[in-house]
Amino acid sequence: MxxxxxxxxxxxxxxxxLGCMNVAWAYGPPIDRNAAITLIRTAHERxxxxxxxxxxxxxxxxxxxxxxxxxxxRDQVVIATKFGFDxxxxxxxxxxxxxxxxxxxxxxxxxxxxxxxxxDLYYQHRIDxxxxxxxxxxxxxxxxxxGKVHHFGLSEAGAATIRPLTRCSR
Length: 170
Fold this sequence. Notes:
- By secondary structure, the protein is an alpha/beta fold.
- The chain has helices at residues 33-45, 61-70, 100-114, 133-145, 159-168; strands at 3-6, 11-14, 17-19, 50-52, 78-83, 85-87, 93-96, 119-124, 149-154.
- Helix 1 crosses helix 2.
- The relative contact order is 0.13.
């Protein structure tokens, strides 16, 4: 399998990744848990090293399945998961929430569900207009400093959102 580096981070992944949303939610009912685990493990056996999930997928079910499926090969794969929604413990989605304390809570819960000590790529799924992007980046930076997260990303962020971050990194 061909490999690619993501940005300037040095994070290297397979050219093909597996988005794990549909194992738990979205386009039809969730697939059987054992079938989902087999699918993920087979993808890895065929050279896929990049797996993407999110707490909102299921909710929570996709992260649980990914964690169970990849536990035996954890050090051979890159796991990406996201934050940014306000999901109650019962799975109700109540809009956006990227407050720093919520980011930390979501990361801790994701680590448990993913059965790992680190999230390789942790990114904001949707921009929360009520939280300055610098605060979001600061919360993820703290997780990086703690070793719980290795890389930070943004999904669906425009130039106006990213610009303040580029000024901070200079």
